[in-house]
Every structure is written in structure tokens, then in C-alpha cells.
Amino acid sequence: MEIDYCKFPDELLYDSEGFIWLKKENDLARIGITSIYSAFAGKVSSVKFKDVRDVEKGKGVCSIESPTHFSIVKVPIKGKVVNVNSALLKNPWLINDSPYGDGWFALIEPSQLAVDEKDLFTVQNAQEKFLAQIKQLRIRCFAAFPDHEMFGIGVECAMVLAKLNDLMMKIPAGDVVHIVSDDPTTPLEMRRWAEQSRQKIIEIRKEDKLYHVVVRKER
After folding, report:
1. What is the pLDDT of residues 177-217, one digit of tens each?
2. Is 11 exposed, middle or buried (0-12, 13-18, 19+ CB in 10 A)?
């Protein structure tokens, strides 16, 4: 399901805040953070796992840090930590780029799942809660998590594109840029720019009077 552009896979269970997800895998449970948490934290720069075997419900298994955020990832169940995602130590950005896939945190053997899951929700049952949380935290989700932000309010799109070209020369291939503009010609001009520059537009959408464009550097 998609709630205000933020994705929540139907097959997962979620905590009441919409921050943590849980996926049942036979006798184990995989844990990760949601698109709400990922967007709120910003681009994650480091992950540190705690040296714990037995974990209580509501206790942390690791910490995550970005240039503007630090927090502890708390598990919604009690159990034994079977495995942690060590790939995050070298590639913490997986948390943002793939929060429901390669960005998972821990694999846990639950000790009282029948009890703990009473405090978890399907996305269908928590849709209104999640929408309220998104609005409260001013979360904005995109099809790809931005590495860079550009704001061109009150200026022509041509000026924004000139700055975008400068940025594209400095960043590596694969980086994602989020552009915000109030110029009504933005959709047309951005598509022309993408065709000429051979870069990829991932998403264009309008919210109120602002256009949000997400592009990925291809080369």
C-alpha cells in the first residue's frame, strides 16, 4: 500500500508509529525500518550494532546516524538475535534505498510472538495512524531516496537547470537529486533537459504550487 507516496508492503506487520516493520519467516522474524523512519532520519551515514544476544521488546539492536539525526532502532518483539545485516556497516545507504529489502537490520527468533504481535498492525489496520504520523513529521517520500536537494523558488526553471548541470558534473553516477521549483514550465523543461543530457527522471509530481522532480545521474 502507498500512503501519501510512502510505501508499506501489505505482507508485513508494523509498530503503532509506523517506524518498524516485522516479517515472519517460518520460526524467525526479520526486522527493519519503514519509509517513514527512513525519510525522517535522512541519508544514513553509519550503523552500529549492539553486542546483544537476547533482546527485550522495545530495546535497541543498533544505532543509525545521519548528518542530521541519531537514533536507536528498537525491536517490537522479545527474542534471540540470530543474525544482523553486516552489509549495512559498509553500505548504510541501503537503509534508505531499500528499507524493505537489503536494508533490513536483524533476524530474531521470537520467544513470545503470539503475545508481542498483538501490539503490531497490518498497514490496512493502521492506515490512518500512519497518515497522521507522516503529516505530523512532515515526511515526504519519493520513488528514490535523494542524495542531494535543490530549491528553485521564485526563479525560472532555466536557472535551476544551469545549477543542476553544475551539480551533475560534481556528483558520481547513481546519485539522486531532488529539485523543487514553482515554475509552471518545470515538467516540460525537465523532460527536455533529461532527453538532451541523457539523464533519468525518476519522478515528477506537483504538490500545491510546487513541482518536485527526482532525477538520477546515469553517467
Report:
1. 999 999 999 999 999 999 999 999 999 999 989 999 999 99
2. exposed
- Find the helix or strand (DSSP H, E) in which 2 lies: strand 2-3
Task: Give how far Cα 152 sits from Cα of 86, 108, 185, 206, Å.
Answer: 39, 46, 13, 14
Give ranges for CATH 3.30.110.40 in the chain. 148-216
Q: For the chain, what percent of residues have pLDDT higher than 90? A: 91
CA 81/CA 85 separation, integer angstroms:
11
Looking at the chain, which residues constitute the CATH 2.40.50.100 domain(s)? Answer: 2-137
Radius of gyration of the chain (CA): 19
CB atoms within 10 A of CB 170: 9
Tell how many helices (H) and how many strands (E) occur in the chain.
Answer: 7, 15
CA distance 36 to 138: 10
Does this model's pTM top 0.70? My answer is yes
Given CATH 2.40.50.100, say whether it is the number of domain 2-137.
Answer: yes
CATH topology of domain 148-216: Translation Initiation Factor IF3 (3.30.110)
**Cα–Cα dist 155/27, whole Å:** 57
Q: How far apart are CA 194 and CA 204, in angstroms?
A: 12
pLDDT digits 0-9 by tens, 117-160: 999 999 999 999 999 999 999 999 999 999 999 998 888 888 89
